[in-house]
Specification:
Length: 228
């Protein structure tokens, strides 16, 4: 059975540390625009055999934006619906944790997480992380990554930025996070929004040590483009 429950505890088997040879990631989705990029990330992690466990946290605002942008509304079977799989057919490695559960495993530095990605990252969550608020599971898990010197990637999305946003980006960068703005690339000639999301997700995963097969790399011909 797929393990996409909405609450968790330290003894929940779906959050038990995985085989140490496989990657454990926290993925947080917050209420900024660009939720289809998060869906692309989730699907890529689901199919990447190097990833053993994904602890997923979705803020209430993210649920609202997901409903606007993807039509997926509510938390019931959210993981399966985002993956586009039938209930019970997902791998089970993605566990949905409750946003308010500050007792979840990822709220502690003793739980082994390799990296955390916030995609998309709202200015509200950026501010909470920049100021060490730790008022919900996303802010707390990010705070833990910073204190444990683990990789934290914040895929910020807003336009334009005000001075508070920019100062908060400086603060998180100084604390060790990577600000990875949700800005697509065009030099790879994307044919669709899905192409843009895929290339962006590949770049984020390359950054945290999970390069994806078939990812676009500037100056490296793709298989079909190799000269004879
Ligand atoms: C459709 C929609 C799009 C939004 N887009 C953004 C955005 O791109 N960036 C942002 O910082 N906030 C955006 N917001 C506002 C955030 O959702 C709001 O500030 C929220 O409090 C963030 O909460 P969270 O960080 O806990 O998810 C958007 C809200 C809605 C309803």
């Amino acid at each position: 059975m797929a393990r996409s429950m909405t609450s968790s505890s330290a003894s929940d088997p779906s959050t038990r540390p995985t085989d140490p040879a496989r990657t454990t990631l926290t993925l947080a989705i917050t209420g900024a625009s660009g939720s289809i990029f998060a869906v692309e990330m989730l699907r890529t992690l689901e199919s990447d055999q190097r990833v053993g466990r994904v602890l997923l946290v979705v803020s209430p605002s993210a649920l609202r934006v997901l409903a606007e942008e993807t039509g997926a509304s509510g938390r019931n079977s959210l993981v399966e619906r985002l993956l586009g799989s039938e209930p019970g057919h997902a791998s089970g490695k993605i566990t949905l944790l409750a946003h308010e559960d500050i007792g979840a495993p990822i709220a502690s530095g003793s739980y082994p997480v390799d990296a955390m990605v916030v995609l998309p990252c709202s200015m509200g969550t950026l501010a909470g992380i920049a100021h060490g608020m730790a008022g919900n599971l996303i802010e707390r898990a990010a705070d833990v990554c910073l204190k444990e010197r683990r990789r934290l990637v914040l895929c910020v999305r807003e336009t334009p930025f005000n001075l508070i946003h920019l100062r908060n980006m400086v603060a998180v960068t100084e604390a060790g996070a990577t600000v990875f703005p949700l800005i697509p690339t065009f030099y790879n000639h994307p044919q669709s929004v899905d192409d843009m999301a895929r290339n962006y997700v590949h770049r984020v995963l390359q950054h945290i040590g999970l390069p994806q097969p078939g990812a676009f790399a500037w100056g490296v011909p793709r298989a079909a483009e190799e000269p004879l």
